From TrEMBL:
Source lineage: Bacteria, Pseudomonadati, Pseudomonadota, Gammaproteobacteria, Lysobacterales
Protein name as catalogued: DUF4177 domain-containing protein
UniProt-listed InterPro entries: YjzH-like
Name of a matching Pfam family: DUF4177
Length: 59
């Protein structure tokens, strides 16, 4: 029997004011990790761009 996966893409937009992007990413990953999601990849084309996180978990 093969493993089946669910996938999730989470975008964290850059904000000039408020919490740092790294702090917001950490909080989001903590929350999703507690729900069983595993981070697979992260993409950010420039420092002032959206952070896109790709996650997966077994179905």
């Amino acid at each position: 029997m093969s493993t089946r996966w669910q996938y999730k893409v989470v975008d964290l937009p850059y904000r000039l004011f408020g919490d740092k992007l790294a702090d917001r990413a950490q909080a989001e990953l903590e929350k999703l990790g507690a729900l069983g999601w595993e981070l697979v990849s992260v993409v950010q084309s420039s420092p002032a761009d959206t952070l896109r996180m790709f996650l997966k978990k077994e179905s």
